[in-house]
Design brief:
49% helix, mainly alpha, single chain, two-stranded antiparallel ribbon, 9% strand
Amino acid sequence: MTKREEFIAVYQEHITRQGASRLLEWLDSDSSDFFTAPSSTRYHGAFEGGLVQHSLNVYECLKDYLARPRTKDLYNMEYTDETVAIVALLHDLCKVNFYATDFRNVKNEYGSWEKVPYYTIRDQMPYGHGEKSVYMIQGFMRLTREEAFAIRYHMGFSGNEDKNSVGRALKMFPLALAVSVADMEASYYLEGTPTK
């Protein structure tokens, strides 16, 4: 099963609210590069299809995090399968049609210059990161307040926001913390550059 097929299967099994099918149609259309886009220019998922793979990795990490007895018993973190799928699979929707391939000159192993491709940013809708994902999703379907905050603040303290706002959001909406943890786990451990 390809990552595209896996994503579509998880999406269709769990995300059923009004507008969800239109969003999936758009993601799988010629108007979107979701299934071929990288997840970053140089770091995690900096390859064709990196974005869909990252989205699936965050989904698996989030499910594991929320399955911990502590999150359920002590923190009362209970969410529907639909909510978990929405916030994990769609948290980086802001990266759709965001990257472009360009070329630069690099010396090869023989000392000759050659053009090599690399990813660059082509942001045609500069609306931030998490908030842009929320905005794009809500063009198709409604999010609950907790889903919207979880997607908006999924970068946690590594984003560019006011740290006091981040702290308040994570305290008010525990799902935001859970998505942030899942995103970091996927980015740094599953997809990061291995040290050895």
